[in-house]
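Supplementary Methods, section 5.1.

A reviewer requested that the exact input to the structure prediction be made available. We therefore reproduce it here, unchanged from the version used in the analyses.
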Amino acid sequence: MPVAALKNLNLYYEIHGAEDAAPLVLLHGATETFRACWRRQIEPFSRRYRLIGLDLRGHGRSDNPAGKLDLRQMADDVRDLLDHLRLDKVHLLGYSGGGSTALFFGLRHPERLRSLTLASNNMELDRARGQVNFWNLARIRREEPRWWQAMTQMHGQPAEKLLQWWAEEDSKRPNFQPGDLQHLHVPTLVVGGDRDPIIPLEQTLKLFRALPDAYLCILPGVGHGAPRLRPQAFNQAVLDFLQFVA
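The structure derived from this sequence is encoded token-by-token as follows.
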């Protein structure tokens, strides 16, 4: 699969589906990869769209020469990849940390969007994570060994650095404010689960209400990870939305 050389960054990406179909870009969650996050979406989405998936900088097969993470820079990485692929306007779908990256993309490059889908993310994610010491390595090894094992399998030894990069990024990034989003006039689907322990339902609703052209999908009984936990319901909600805004 190809790697794009972008302004001192080597970014891994994949393309699936017909070349003449409308482009749909997928951004995975923090500490994941394109394949790990979206394997249940590749086949159904690529039947209708030209699917572009990437490993965000510092994840999977993409490098990170900056030695840190900044969601604004990661949003610009997506812009640079679109330029590399000669794509003008795309549908953009981001999950969790990839959703926050997608939201920054919308604020910085709204002219490049046909639509925006934000899954399992909110406006105050840094605070929510800080309250539970989210990125602490000892906590993860003790309380979430399956997550740690998955990270080391996806990223190898750099997994510890990846946790540090995300902890530092969360500590510096300001919360989104409603005024930041009121000018984002792009059709946007906000997807959340009503049992999400990381993104409380009220935060999902707060994000939805702050966006001027937003649609809401709450999946009942679903925690953090709708694309994995309820793929059929999630996929149908996204495909219905994309067809509606086409």
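The chain has a mean pLDDT of 90. These observations are discussed further in the main text.
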